[in-house]
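Supplementary Methods S3. Complex input for the alpha-D-glucopyranose-bound model.
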Amino acid sequence: MERLTSSPRLMIVSDLDDTMVDHHKDPENLALLRFNSLWEDAYRHDSLLVFSTGRTQSMYKKLRKEKPLLTPDVIVTSVGTEIAYGNSMVLDNNWIEIMNHKWDRGIVEEETSKFPELTLQSGTEQRPHKLSFFIDKSKVQEVTKELTQRLEKRGLDIKIIFSGGKAFDVIPKGGGKGQALAYLLKKLKTEGKLPINTLACGDSGNDTELFTIPNVYGAMVSNAQEELLEWHAANAKDNANIIHASERCAGAILQAIGHFKLGPNLSPRDVSDFLKYKADNVNPSHEVVKFFLFYERWRRGEVEICDTSYITSLKASCHPAAVFVHPSGAEKSLRDTIDELGKYNGDKKGKKFRVWTDQVLATDTTPGTWIVKLDKWEQTGDERKCCTTTVKFTLKEEEGFVWEHVQQTWSEATQVKDDNNWII
Ligand code: GLC
Ligand code: MG
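Predicted complex, serialized as structure tokens:
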């Protein structure tokens, strides 16, 4: 969040399972990839991405290995009982203090064990401020009432959340995704960085609270769970700031950005002709996002080999002396590298090949010179590689952005067996 010097244009606070990530109907993660390109293209530089999940940090890390998730600025885990910032996920200790208020894990454990209706979820789901169970839907009301009373008598102030038709979480009263969002908004406000717009997105019971925070737009995905829809029908059906989208998962986020007019919502992935497509932000990030999308299409065989117009224009926008430094350390002329792309047309056809960019950030170091830094991911089947890419551009009045230098290094997360297949 430090990277922003003023109010973010948009803050998206999204649940992960069955909201950002479609576990059922989108095996190629296309909706997520569409969201990703839009975010990196149009929002990353001046907006905030917050993931808010019921998962623990370690289960979140597991999901990141399985799905092409972007790196969020803030990650709220364990049903809003833990908040962490940045790449290295530094925990917010003030929030932990708040979670300790009128909370005693031992007592919750003792009292919940007296309910045969509650089946403990696996150990990986249990946290200092979250005890998670499964329950039969028909027992929820009765157990919630009885358990709340018992814990109150023992001096605790707790909250019970029912999600996904079966999950039963016990957390501190001051916790939960909604309170975590309210806390973040307050913190941002004191730093002078209150977002201009905030959009919350979710699908299940533990997301309900997100839709109760003032001045926050809400999108319930089309595939929302019954408990969330019931809550909405009973409590918020006339609230025009909340929509029940007609699109599933990440598609609903794009839809909501458009519906509430929060900014551009055309994903570059949905653009077929990059030459005609000019984003409204004058930012070289756009060139990089576009290039890697083209690169994916080219290798997937989705661009006709005869249609070299984009390649031609790309080459023309490279400085003749521009160099590409391959992650292996080898150096080549950037124009030659682009020429070489020719022979890779369609080489990944039918191979579940995807490319996405993450944390695309541009800085104009000296007037007219931009450095764009990003993580570039490439996936073929189940194998993934990531490299940190740095591109230097100059802005010329006549030609627009000119590629001056591209350098790539393998990121720590990448185990490179062979790099013959890595072109750019
Ligand atoms: C996630 C968590 C689980 C929790 C559920 C509902 O699935 O892994 O422990 O009960 O969200 O909040
Ligand atoms: Mg969910």
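Residues 285-300 form the longest helix (16 residues). The first strand starts at residue 10 and ends at 14.
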